[in-house]
Design goal:
CATH superfamily of the largest domain: TPP-binding domain
Bound molecules: adenosine-5-diphosphoribose
Number of helices: 11
Strand content: 15-25%
Number of strands: 9
CATH topology of the largest domain: Rossmann fold
Number of domains: 2
Radius of gyration: 18 Å
Largest sheet: 6 strands, parallel
CATH class of the largest domain: Alpha Beta
Length: 238
């Protein structure tokens, strides 16, 4: 069924959440015990407030996250999506993930709604650096400004150009596939609905049920994304 939808579609958009990255070894956000946010309150530490008032804690939290990303790498599923884009099977990826793994794997049209941990930039002058600055505990720019990861912090809005591109892609989609998101975070979770309203078929692949399952044309639970993509890829390549 999903295979047929992919074959028929002329404009397929993929939407990934943290479930896309767990098979790379990164923790998700909301699982009990292993979820990243079971250990820290994100609205406190990953915020503009922390950057302004408790910067040492902010640096420490994000250094850990940068090192976490540097310890892992894209998995086969990321590579399959990059290959599908090259072959014209999919047209773009909207992601909530900040690990940057879609781009690292070679995907080109990636809309990173929450930014990326692959780079940091100066809060004062905007100068961009690689994330190895955080690795080497260099937290200040040559201008003296604070270096912060290029991710959206609590207290900040989503990047407008990326957001507009994601709206456009969702409206153009005739197939919209969600991979590994609980779809609990607004406004990012509005894209699947927007696509559906504009006539796209909606597919949700997620280990657990999501709030949006009843809008979907196809729902796949209890199966890992890597496995589902590998199986589809096998059929698309034969
Ligand atoms: N295969 C399929 N699904 C998986 C896998 C896997 N290998 N691993 C985890 N999942 C599913 C989980 O069952 C869970 O429902 O992925 C979902 C991830 O949901 P969340 O942890 O809520 O992540 P996400 O939807 O991406 O929301 C996280 O919240 O505040 C923001 O910035 C934050 O972007 C982040 C977002």
């Amino acid at each position: 069924m999903l295979l047929d939808l992919i074959k028929k579609s002329r404009y397929t958009v993929i939407y990934t959440g943290v479930g896309m990255s767990t098979e790379s070894g990164l923790p998700d956000f909301r699982s009990t015990k292993t979820g990243l946010w079971e250990q820290e309150d994100p609205s406190v530490v990953a915020s503009t407030d922390a950057l302004n008032r408790d910067v040492e804690r902010f640096f420490e939290f994000y250094r850990k996250r940068v090192l976490g990303v540097k310890d892992c790498s894209p998995h086969k599923g990321h590579e399959i999506l990059a290959e599908w884009e090259r072959r014209g099977i999919i047209q773009g990826i909207i992601t909530q993930n900040v690990d940057g793994f879609h781009s690292v794997a070679g995907s080109d049209n990636v809309m990173e709604l929450h930014g990326t941990l692959q780079q940091v930039h100066c809060q004062s002058c905007g100068q961009v650096y690689g994330n190895e600055m955080y690795e080497s505990e260099t937290f200040y720019c040559t201008c003296g400004g604070k270096l912060r990861p290029s991710v959206v912090l609590f207290g900040e809005g989503l990047p407008e150009d990326t957001f507009m591109k994601a709206i456009d892609a969702s409206e153009r989609a005739d197939l919209f596939i969600v991979l590994g998101s609980s779809l609990t975070v607004t406004p990012a979770n509005q894209f699947p609905l927007l696509a559906k309203e504009q006539g796209a078929k909606l597919v949700i692949v997620n280990l657990e049920p999501t709030l949006f399952d009843h809008y979907a044309d196809v729902v796949i639970h209890k199966r890992k994304i890597g496995e589902v993509l590998a199986e589809l890829d096998h059929h698309l390549s034969s």
